[in-house]
Amino acid sequence: MKVVLDFLAHMLRHFTIISFFDILDIICLAGVLFVAFQFVKERRAGKLALGVGLLFAFMLICQLLNLRSMQYLLSHFFDFGIVVLVIIFQPEFRSALEKLGDNSIKGVKSIGETKNSTQTIDMIDTVSNAVFDLAKTKTGAIIVFERNTKLGDFTLSGTILNAQVSTFLLRNIFFNKAPLHDGAVIIRDNRIYCAGCLLPLSTNPDIIKDLGTRHRAAIGVSENSDCVVVVVSEETGIVSIANEGHIYRNFTRATMKKKLEEYLLQDKPSQKGKHGARIKMKNK
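^ thats the sequence. predicted structure below, dont judge the formating
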């Protein structure tokens, strides 16, 4: 009993000397750890983080058992391992920093500036009509909606149009004999900014094998920016939407319009609904 009381008294003495800045420090550390956990939870970095954690636990065991050779090897691994990890996972870190920058200025940009929701809704309606006309004939298409992160790196690979969104124009662009049909259309500020753009393919090894090149390109560009991508499958005519490295499939005209309005007019789109269920990035 005396041991327990001594321990409690010892802990109480430490609590009495905690200052406001100590509490602030703990809150900041908790926030950083939470953001890091959210970042690695559904990315390839999650498996990496688990492996690093196991190595760290093994190093602690080696210290307890006084295994000097293993301590020396693991300590040098951790000295240079951080640099190696940054190089290997450069795309993930870049994506995280870009999204951090977008979120930090979103509130500032919104001051005195409102979205022209009427134009956006009309644009979504026009695109939806074109998408499902293409889906009926199983004509492959990929349409990218630019949001906060500019896609200038990808527009350079295409042809600048800067045209009003039109159902007939989108159908003509993706007509299988048209010169620009293999590339992506990028919509900026509710206008067709360019067409025939080349997009990066996702390198995620867990993507299911049923998804073709268009779907991988949609996932790839959504991994590196906050854009929203609509894809029409050339094989099945199924309409999909990609965002933040995830893909949602089996949309109807109504559910696609609703989802696009949530993405383009709201900050936090709903992830629920019978249609547009997210496809898990693993084969089963």
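The chain has ten helices and eight strands.
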